[in-house]
Amino acid sequence: MAENDWKARLGVVFSTNPDFQYTTDTEPEVESIAPSKQNLRVWIESNHRGGKTVTLVKGFVGPEEELKELAKALKNRCGVGGSIKDGEIIIQGSHREKVLEILLSKGYRAKAAGGK
Length: 116
Fold this sequence. Notes:
Elements: H1 5-8, E1 39-45, E2 54-58, H2 64-78, E3 82-85, E4 88-92, H3 96-105, E5 109-112
């Protein structure tokens, strides 16, 4: 056993089960995909939002850090607030054309989809 393997066990010292396999709850790291290989969709939605309109960016594949960076860039360029939820970027207001333009300028494959 390597020097730091004991830390990976997280408190399991001994098991009487000969078939015991210790697993952690950590999820495997999602690989980063080049922007030109991403297939993003930009939606306008107001359902279940108290009548407020939002712009959604769906279909991003990659680490959450990259998703956060992209969301921050979109919010700054549009001059509005927003958030990330369930792997989707939510931008406050109706900014489909501007978001599409920003994504395309960053090298992403993006299309307008659904909504108003």
